[in-house]
Structures are given as structure tokens and as C-alpha cells.
Input
Amino acid sequence: MNDPVFAPRFTPSPDGLVADFYRHLAEGTLRLQRCDACGTWRHPPRILCGHCGGDGWQWMAASGRGTVYTWTVTHQMLFPPFAEDLPYAVVVVELEEGPRLVTAVRGIEPSALRLGLPVDLRIARVSETVGLHWFVPRT
Ligand SMILES: [Zn+2]
Output
């Protein structure tokens, strides 16, 4: 199956650690924080480890492999840039490393989504400093 086209509907304007997260995506890599003390991966970005409280961490490249954890299907226009996509699914993907991302899965109808569906990362570079993550079903 050819990858579906992903056309970003808007560009976020993140700051702080979240800006670092989006910049790594713009550079072509999904990087998540991993605690130096206990090795726990985390997302969204934050200063302290939620597992051990450690304040040392590194941005580490994630595998980009995950499974569908849950989703909701939006049928009403809540945000104009997404109007042409209705109905669309907002999907939570659980990465192999553990953290979950709120994201999109393209190339599959919302009605065909299944819990545990294996998915693979894709990245859309939308500017010098922002990339967006999305996923496709694993083939
Ligand atoms: Zn930790």
C-alpha cells in the first residue's frame, strides 16, 4: 500500500521542551525523553521523571513502532482547518517504548480501526522547526 498523503492543517507554535520535541520531528526523528536514573521513557516532555523523580534525561530516538491504544471519531466541525476531514479519528498510539502519542492514523477508515492495530510512524516536516507525527497501519 502506498503511504497516504498527510497535509498538515495548521502549524503549532510550541515553546520550551515541547518546541524541542517538534524540532526533532522537523529534523526527521521522533525523539522522546528517557530518564538517566531509571531508563523510563516519557511523553509529553517535562522536567522530572514521573516514575522516579529524577531530573536527568536525554532525548532518545524512538522506534516509531506502536499499536492503537484507543481513539475517538469526530463527526462535527470543532476546528475549521479539519472540516474537510470529517469524520476523522483522533488516535492514541502506544509506542513500543511505552509512552502514548495523540496522533492520526491515515490510510484506514475510522470504522476499520482496532485495538492493538500495529502502526508505523511517519513524519511531515512543515517548517524548519516543526514536524508533525502521524501513523499508518503496518503492512
Ligand atoms: Zn526515572
Notes: The helical segments are 16-26.
